[in-house]
Amino acid sequence: MKKIKKVFSSNIEVSRLLVIMFCWLVFMAIMQGGKFYSGKNFLTMAGQFPEYGLMVLGGMLPMITGGIDLSVVGTANFTSILCVFLAIRTFGADGEMNPAFFLMFFVIALLVGFGVGCLNGILVSKLRVPPILATLGVNELLLGLNIVMTGGAAISDFPKQFCDFFSQNIRGFLPIKVIVFVIVAFFIWFLLEKTTYGTKIRLYGTNVHVAVFSGINTTLLILKTYILSSFCAALGGLMMLATYSSARADYGSNYTMQTILIMVLGGVSPNGGKGKVSGAVTAIVLLKFIESGINRFKSVSTYYVTLIWGAVLILALIMDYLSEKPMKARM
Questions:
Q1: Domain total of the chain
Q2: Is residue 142 part of a domain?
Q3: Which of 123, 151, 195, 327 could form a disulfide with 129 if both were Cys (CB 3.0 to 4.6 A apart)?
Q4: 96 in a structural domain
Q5: Whose CA is closest to 242, among 251, 250, 255, 254?
Q6: 213 close to 111: Cβ distance less than 8 angstroms
Q7: Residues 279-304: tens digit of each pLDDT
Q8: Is residue 270 part of a domain?
Q9: Which pLDDT band holds residue 203 (cuts at 50, 70, 90)?
């Protein structure tokens, strides 16, 4: 019993989210038990969250440093559009893609993540542009490129073998996209908890001057952080491509706010220095449960979902401020 209490007290954010999740699941059992608690519904939820879940895993890294990455959606769409163009050029619009070619999509994701991450990192670390302005500008640049390349329309005529493969479920209940998400989540967890990288970005987010005087190469650290964030966003773009079976300039336009909401709910401090993968993953699952539950009520318009997310984000920021206030007082 003492061990359980110790685990919950050491991660207050996760404990809080689990309590909210339990209450929501009980509420849904009472109100919409038959519709919500079905294998098809849970399978649908599992197949949808990895695309923005990957953006959360990457985006939490800049936020831990006290920055932010608003270019994740632009990066994701840019990656998917490039992959579609490459597939059309190689196999034709009605051709059949060789499964070995799937690797090229991940190479494109790696290259896009590296390029966009370097641009963000240089603007923030070298030119001292505020992260919110630097990444917002890069996102608008990518959005413009996406619109120019696609003409603002969705591209759906291309070989769909990649989409078909990553839309599959292993043994009928485990989506392949979830496996990709779990692998990336474990990788980010390992970086944050088992390497000096995690210690360095938390120190940087807590106090930049202390990080500099500790001998940390802060320029390289920020560069690595934004590259990792963009790489995760690019992988999210591949999962979006598999979900929609098409590429478009403005897919996932609401994901930017959702990723910020999830990060704050998961205990990643907007002021930097704090954040865990466990909190982010729990917040991702909770948000998907709430979104799916709201959609079960026919009387509630989907237009209210964005309103609800905005209210929850403000509430999460207030809770984060109130939780950090006693800590600052003690210091």
A1: 1
A2: yes
A3: 123
A4: yes
A5: 251
A6: no
A7: 999 999 988 888 888 888 877 776 77
A8: no
A9: very high
